[in-house]
Design brief:
Helices cover 43% and strands 16% of the residues. By secondary structure, the protein is an alpha/beta fold. A 7-stranded mixed sheet has the order 9-8-7-6-10-11-12, sandwiched between helices. A 5-stranded mixed sheet has the order 1-2-4-3-5, sandwiched between helices. Helix 1 crosses helix 14.
Length: 437
């Protein structure tokens, strides 16, 4: 088992910390130390190379001028332009955005993509905004960032409460600024504007690829396996549907309003249709209503946390009875909880691997935009499968070599690549400044 002693440093804490920025820095520090890399690697990786805060004035439908606050974190671009989503949410914080950009750096390095990590967010409640107000906010945000984004600088994408339509507005506003079309600025666009086929299912599909690979390693048949999905949004519903297609039995799903359970199995497509009509999965005919905490504790073969951060923590980790936990969400398991899962023999597929399908197909979209050559959905899915399985095998091999968690192994694979790139570019040498575009 890996050494779980916390490294020294004022930026890290010794008790369970659910701040994602502290958690990712701890994970990076542990990976660099176990790889015996020079301290300069961690010093560069422990914070973003650039963090931007912008004010976005929007004239509301009432005539009032309201100013929103937005952030963009560009963590590390040693492998290429930074890449990552933009979320619209009332609880967006600088630490959250920084942490998510750092996780994106790890994902891209892990999957062998020519990107670094980026992330953005605006403090707002998009459910309270009209379409016109949402468009004004979207255009204002990208205009404020116009000097530091672009196909060869920083490539945004959709995230929480942002959509292909939001990406289309942003792409159009940036194109107006440059007086030429810039489809490659942003990914997750509508297909007619350069979006990639297969993008909407990519996160869930990539997660399923890792579940199938893990089941094979564990000699666990997926046919008949009981699956529980926390968070029945895009990633969770797609993962549930695809796993059912492989013969698994979906026994419980949940959303922010609660969960539903049926030991005989659920039809994910029928549940999704019900949710679209009623705004929640709760009340789906023939099911028992359960809480999210009860859902996490169900006996099953596969648990897919696809909701929010810190859902599995030190207080409930001992209740997890799944054989595989596949993290479709970002940061659903705290470090202390993962230690408990590790000791209990639960195989955790970490978020930086399990949910990397989204950024992988975003990379495919970027490539298609640059070449103006567009792929079929079958080709996208095939290439995604190759990337996800290659990354899984590399992480699993590192896990076996060091007898550690899959998360630690994933960070070690990614950090080793980042360190080598920084060494070759001279970033680790004394008196050498990191180039910032």
């Amino acid at each position: 088992m890996c050494d779980r002693n916390l490294p020294k440093g004022s930026d890290l804490v010794a008790t369970e910390d659910r701040n994602p920025y502290d958690i990712v820095r701890r994970q990076l520090r542990e990976a660099t130390e176990q790889l015996n890399l020079p301290p300069s690697v961690y010093e560069i990786l422990k914070q973003p190379l650039r963090f931007i805060e912008v004010s976005i004035p929007v004239q509301m439908d009432s005539g009032e001028l309201r100013v929103f606050t937005g952030f963009r974190s560009q963590h590390n671009d040693v492998l290429g332009p930074t890449k990552g989503g933009i979320r619209f949410h009332p609880d967006v914080t600088p630490d959250e955005v920084k942490a998510l950009s750092m996780w994106m750096t790890i994902k891209c390095a892990l999957l062998g993509l020519p990107f670094g990590g980026g992330k953005g967010g605006i403090i707002c409640n998009p459910k309270e905004l009209s379409r016109r107000e949402l468009e004004g906010l979207s255009r204002g945000f990208i205009a404020a960032l116009a000097q530091v984004v672009g196909p060869d600088k920083d490539v945004p994408a959709p995230d929480v409460y942002t959509t292909p339509q939001v990406m289309a507005w942003m792409m159009d506003e940036f194109s107006k600024t440059l007086s030429r079309n810039q489809f490659g600025l942003i990914t997750g666009k509508p297909i007619v504007l350069g979006g990639s086929r297969g993008r909407s299912e990519a996160t869930g599909r990539g997660c399923v690829e890792t579940v199938l690979a893990a089941a094979k390693k564990l000699n666990m048949p997926i046919d008949g396996a009981r699956v529980v999905v926390q968070g029945f949004g895009n990633a969770g519903s797609v993962a549930a549907s695809l796993l059912r297609g492989h013969g698994a039995k979906i026994i419980a799903v949940s959303d922010s309003k609660g969960g539903i359970y049926n030991e005989h199995g659920l039809d994910p497509l029928a549940v999704l249709s019900y949710k679209e009509q009623h705004g929640t999965v709760v009340g789906f005919p023939g099911t028992e209503t359960i809480t999210n905490e009860e859902l996490l504790a169900l006996e099953c073969e596969v648990l897919v946390p696809a909701a929010l951060e810190n859902q599995i923590h030190a207080d409930n980790a001992h209740k997890i009875r799944a054989k595989i936990v596949a993290e479709a969400a970002n940061g659903p398991t705290t470090p202390d909880a993962e230690q408990i899962l590790f000791e209990n023999g639960v195989f955790v597929i970490p978020d930086v691997l399990a949910n990397a399908g989204g950024v992988t197909v975003s990379y495919f979209e970027w490539v298609q935009n640059l070449y103006n050559w567009y792929w079929s959905e079958e080709e996208v899915n095939h290439q995604l499968g190759l990337k996800m399985n290659q990354a899984f095998e590399e992480v699993y091999a590192m896990r076996e070599k060091h007898n550690c968690t899959m998360r630690r192994a994933a960070y070690m694979v990614a950090v080793a690549r980042l360190a080598e790139a920084m060494r070759l570019r001279g970033w680790l040498e004394r008196n050498t400044a990191v180039w910032r575009s």
